[in-house]
Amino acid sequence: MKTIAVLTSGGDAPGMNAAIRAVVRTALDKKFTVMGIERGYSGLINGEVMPMERKTVADIIQRGGTVLKTARSEEFKTEKGRKKAVGVLKKFGIDGLVVIGGDGSFRGAQELSKMSIATIGIPGTIDNDLAYTDFTIGFDTAVNTVLDAINKLRDTSTSHERVSVVEVMGRNCGDIALYSGLAGGAENIILPEIGYDGDELCRSIIREKTKGKLHNLIVLAEGIGGAEALAEKIQKVTGIEARATKLGHIQRGGSPSCMDRILASKFGYRAVELLEEGKTSRVVGIRGGKIVDLDIDEALNMSKHFDNKLYNIANALA
């Protein structure tokens, strides 16, 4: 193997640049030629390929987003589109491909591996919804972004003695809500994995109000419903002012945390090692504090484990 390429696909996540940097500099250290593919699989199909050197990835470890840019590609989902992508890889003499992204990106890498392309996946998604790894790149930064918002909302909620419903991202995975809710001291954390009883929630808010509680903070995962509808119901049933805040895409941006930078660096280094070892169709992750790699088919077939213990801790401390 002489030439490898790296691309970022799907939703961006803080730490993707740190992973790109790690892949490029590790590969160059191992005497590979490195290419960068812009705009994910869409850019691959369109031949948006450029050489990468050490200076290409200078001063990006601290930057959010992805310097390679990202996009979604409907064309790549077709057999014709994937054949075109393989043709571009062969045209540029690319022997191995590192894909940084989430579930959809990995499924693209899985399809390319079936077409005899050596692929390695690095988990980059704020949702932390890949079952095979404890953490994904971008998750820690997103949680800290939410935590900062919660801290500010608590101040104004206390001043006005109101209920604050904060909606966070995560698709159908409640990890961002669970971790930020626990760290932020939320009174209630609503997750798609657990569900909730709206009437009982309102009763608990009333009970806390009668005990003299000045505010009530609820963290709501986007996968279970909208914050505005819940806030309207709470205000109507309890008579207590309730406001909804949807944090949206600010959770995707910002300078990556120390944890995300280190995780991305470790993942990028291991991804290149795997290609050097002649391994393919693998994904890199972390379990119990150790860097691991699994077959991509096995990884994508695993079911996400919900941390009931952490949820119980959050409830006990609320």
Automatic annotation (TrEMBL):
As for what it does, the entry says: Catalyzes the phosphorylation of D-fructose 6-phosphate to fructose 1,6-bisphosphate by ATP, the first committing step of glycolysis.
Indicate the segments forming the Phosphofructokinase domain, all copies: 4-275
Q: Which cofactor does it need?
A: Mg(2+)
InterPro entries annotated for this entry? Answer: ATP_PFK, ATP_PFK_prok-type, PFKA_ATP_prok, Phosphofructokinase_CS, Phosphofructokinase_dom, PKF_sf
- Subunit comment for this entry? Homotetramer.
Q: Where does substrate bind?
A: 125-127, 162, 169-171, 222, 243, 249-252
Regarding protein family, the annotation reads: Belongs to the phosphofructokinase type A (PFKA) family. ATP-dependent PFK group I subfamily. Prokaryotic clade 'B1' sub-subfamily.
Subcellular localization: Cytoplasm
Keyword list (alphabetical) reads: Allosteric enzyme, ATP-binding, Cytoplasm, Glycolysis, Kinase, Magnesium, Metal-binding, Nucleotide-binding, Transferase
Per UniProt, Mg(2+) binds at 103
Protein name per its UniProtKB record: ATP-dependent 6-phosphofructokinase
Per its record, what are the GO molecular function terms?
6-phosphofructokinase activity
As recorded in UniProt, coiled-coil segments are: none
Main location, first listed in the record = cytoplasm
The organism encoding this protein is Clostridium lapidicellarium
* Recorded name of the encoding gene: pfkA
Residues the record lists as binding ATP: 11, 72-73, 102-105
Catalytic residues at 127 (proton acceptor)
**NCBIfam families attached here?**
PFKA_ATP, PRK03202.1
Q: Name one Pfam family in it.
A: PFK
Which residues of this UniProt protein bind ADP? 21-25, 154, 185-187, 211, 213-215
